[in-house]
Amino acid sequence: MEVVDVVLKAKHLTALTGAGVSAESGVPTFRGKDGLWNKYRPEELATPEAFARNPEIVWEWYKWRMKIVFNAKPNQAHYAFAELERMGILKCLITQNVDDLHERAGSKRVLHLHGSLKVVRCTGCKKEFEVNEPPEKTLCECGSLLRPGVVWFGENLPEKILRDAIFELSLSDAIIVAGTSAVVQPAASLPYIVKRNGGIVIEVNPDVTPLTEIADISVREKAGKFMKELVDEIKLRLSSKTP
Ligand code: OAD
To answer: Is 29 close to ligand 1, i.e. is its CB under 6 Å away?
Structure first.
């Protein structure tokens, strides 16, 4: 079974992406050799308790990450997913990433399970602001502290986005899962919805993950190279079909 055949046959293809997809854009992943959680402790930086204890340190870390993400450029993997959507093949892209590289590559239907670094939210009045650079002030006009619009450990995922993702997956007969270690819940369980319904799970990751066990196809490559080649092959097949 070849990925290109599965993708061309699928009636409702979705994708789930993780930090590995942005790695080739220079955005650090969380796990693995150079992963953020090797250098920093999540409980000191990415929990509501850490923010309550020391908002300055948490903000400093998020401003640093914002700077990296806002200066990064989409890579071949982001462009390939956007192209698949434009071609009408990919119906929905679900991402754990808090960067906006999928959108900047042209993807339209993107569900951000873990929020976004582009959003800053007031902890008091709950007002949300879009930012294009790290905010200078971290106090809202109402006097309360602003916080990054991301999901921290111990917090619930945005309800509607999770519901929409589950709905899309319930319709899916194939899913490409790219660049995720598949260990953070509930995101890691989402491909099982497709599997249970008899759909095909394609994993794109240079490393083995817990998802590998249920993957119908495991592609041990970097997402950038593989996704570009996949789109090129699809274009070739489609163009050789037309008279
Ligand atoms: P991880 O950092 O846990 O995993 C990244 C995965 O990408 C690893 O399995 C790598 O092998 C793989 N990878 C690295 N480079 C790649 C490449 N070029 N192409 C394809 N794959 C590559 O990132 P996530 O699974 O996204 O949550 O992490 C899940 C969540 O854990 C994040 O959203 C974040 C983090 O704590 C929150 O902050 C709530």
So the answer is: yes
